[in-house]
Amino acid sequence: MDYQRVFNQAIDRLHAEGRYRVFIDILRNKGSFPNARCFAGHNGPKPITVWCSNDYLAMGQHPAVVTAMEDALHDVGAGSGGTRNIGGNTHYHIELEGELADLHGKQAALLFTSGYVSNDATLSTLAKILPGCIIFSDELNHASMIAGIRNSGCEKQVFRHNDLAHLEELLAAANPDAPKLIAFESVYSMDGDVAPIEAICDLSDKYNALTYIDEVHAVGMYGARGGGISERDAVADRVNIIEGTLGKAFGVMGGYIATDQTIVDVIRSYAPGFIFTTSLSPVLVAGALASVRHLKASSAERDGQQAAATRLKTMFADAGLPVMPSTTHIVPLMIGDPVKAKRISDILLAEYGVYVQPINYPTVPRGTERLRFTPGPAHDESMMRELTNALLEIWDRMELRLAA
């Protein structure tokens, strides 16, 4: 076996398909996001504007968050000291879990090192605990949810995206005595659409199924206190398990679930992805705690972000750029070709100092490659005008078609 040849061929395939991923080399400028410095392809740092960060509200730059992390660092040091069982169950962790349970109106919450881990660990463990469990999964669910379902070894049935009739058809055909779990997201981040949570909960009641919602792109962003779409739509009490992240709107790092005390105890006691990993640094937890508390009380960041997203969608549409329909803060621009998407991204960065990453397969289906913009409260109208004009120039240069 020529191992190197096999590895090289795998990378060559990505290049041939136009979906080889290049990671940018940047540093953000504290206190002035979305301004950053790019180090790739030139001598020294070059100023750029970031348009694709998941730090949607710039809370990673917020003075309260930064101060809380600095205070924790000087109070307890850098690391957690081990797993939650051994030495990493700090008071910061306990406080944050209390705040997250309160945010979603649940009895308890459980922290993980990332949103990916929280999905993988929780879904795989739940299905193993429930004998003969069937998981009904939306076809556009995130890779972490798919991994968790696969790792559970249980039966999986995939329903068409947000298709309630198809979901009910599958539920009705299943063994009525089998444990059932419906797994879905609130905001689907590549298209920017929203799940019909209340209607899914109606089906879960009718067929005696548990509900599991991934709110990673919605926590901090929606609802009076940032509890997500389930809070905004007043249905959080009907969802059994709410999963979220601390690395997007809350601006730090980590994942969590919020649910009843017994389910938290089961996951805490049985999930290898929780038991056998070092817990989050208390420095990170302190920052997330400050962010959650701030966004529970302040809507200014959410309001500013929503206004920015609406403004950018309007500018793109008025210019004839192929902006995809979205009812949320996600602003996707359809390209439909991986090579062109990468080329547009490269020109924007090299010539205009604009950073937006192309989204290619397998994140989205082939033929639906796009640029995904996430304007925040600090992206002002002049930035948006410059971005729109840059895109129009590139569209003309590459002889791309504008929308009718």
UniProtKB/TrEMBL annotation:
Pathway: Porphyrin-containing compound metabolism; protoporphyrin-IX biosynthesis; 5-aminolevulinate from glycine: step 1/1. GO terms for biological process: protoporphyrinogen IX biosynthetic process. It catalyses: succinyl-CoA + glycine + H(+) = 5-aminolevulinate + CO2 + CoA. Pfam families: Aminotran_1_2. Residues 48-391 form the Aminotransferase class I/classII large domain. Keywords: Acyltransferase, Heme biosynthesis, Pyridoxal phosphate, Transferase. The keyword Transmembrane helix does not apply. Belongs to the class-II pyridoxal-phosphate-dependent aminotransferase family. PANTHER family: 2-AMINO-3-KETOBUTYRATE COENZYME A LIGASE, MITOCHONDRIAL (PTHR13693:SF102), CLASS II AMINOTRANSFERASE/8-AMINO-7-OXONONANOATE SYNTHASE (PTHR13693). This is 5-aminolevulinate synthase. It comes from Sphingomonas prati.
